[in-house]
Amino acid sequence: MNRPTARAFRAPRSDAEMPKPVGRAGFITETNASWRTERPVIDSGGCIGCLHCYLVCPEGAVFKQDGTVAIDLDFCKGCGICANECPKRVIAMIAEEE
Question: Model pTM?
Fold first, then answer.
């Protein structure tokens, strides 16, 4: 097996020598990758609006709408942190529908 040889780094001297980007600049994922197996459901009757779920959500999928807490399922990855950390236990993780 031939291994590539190491070569010294040489800084680009022009724009043509710059590496080409592999994706669009500023691209943000618009929806989850559809690999979520569970999704959170909030019992809004028991929710006290403390927004602790908002603080612990790693994806920023929790938001407040019309005075109630909601989850943007386009961004939710189904990790269950919100359900685990809810002080009133009003967030349940249910199986993702096919």
Answer: 0.66
